[in-house]
Amino acid sequence: MTSAASIAGKVVVITGGARGIGFATARRLRDLGAQVAIGDVDEAKVKEAGADLGLEVYGKLDVTDPDGFATFLDEVERRLGPLDVLVNNAGIMPANPFVEEPDRVTRRILDINVYGVAVGSKLAAQRMVPRGRGTVINIASLAGETPTPGLATYCASKAAVLALTDSLRVEYRTSGVRFCAVLPTFTNTELIAGTAGAKGLKNAEPSDIAEAVAKLITTPRPRVAVTRAAGLLVSLTKRLLPRAGGEYLARRFGLEHTFLDDVDQEARRAYEQRARGLDN
User: Fold this and answer.
1) Which of 24, 61, 179, 249 is deepest in the core (most CB within 10 A)?
2) Is 67 a member of any domain?
3) What is the pTM of this model?
C-alpha cells in the first residue's frame, strides 16, 4: 500500500471527479492526506461528490474550455496552494459501429478524451515547470493498445493520450515535472454498463486505479497497467505474436462482440445518453 507520508499535504486536482475512477481516486488521496479538488462537467453530481468527500474545493469543470479550466486551477491554487498533481481523468466511451457513429459524437469523444487532456497537461505544466516540480497523471486505457470493435474512436483517443504523455515525459524529462499514464482494463464503472468484459479476465475496480495513481505520485513511472494481468497479456501479445495472432487472441477473449453484439442496451442506455450529451 502507498505511504500516506509521501502524499499528505499535496495539492491534487482530479478531472471527472464526480463518479467512478475519479471519485475513487479523490477518496483514496483524501484518505492519504492530500488536499484534493475535483471538477466535473456534471455540476449537480460534483457538488454532491465534493460534499460527500468533505472537500474544500469542487465545482463544474468543462475540460474542453481552456479559460474555464485555467480559472478552476487558479481557484484551487488560491485556496489550497500550488498545484502538485493533476489527474486528467475525464473521459467518455460511447460504443457503436463506426459507420453509425454521428460526427457530433466522434468530435465529442476527441474533444473530451484528447483535447481535454492536452489542455489540462499544458495548464498544469505552465504552473509546474517554472517551479521545477509536479506530476501529471493521464488516465488512458489498454484500449489505446488493443483495437476493439465498437470503440474505434475511443481507442484512437486513448492511443493519442499515450503518445501525448510519452512525448511530454521526454520533452520535460529534466524539468522536475513527471508525466505518467495509467492504462486500465475493463473497470467496473458506468463506462462498461451492459457489457460482459473480456472472457476469462477479471475486471478492475475503481479503487485499483486509485491505488495506482497514489503509487505514481510517490514513485512516478511512464506507464502502469491495471490490472497487472491484463497489462502483461497485452504486452506479451504485442511482443510475441504477429498482428494476425494478436487479433485472433482478442477474438477468443470476446472483444469482437463485447461492444457491438453482446450488449444489454437497456442497461447501457443511461450512460450512452450522458456520454453523447443527450441527457440535457
Assistant:
1) 61
2) yes
3) 0.94
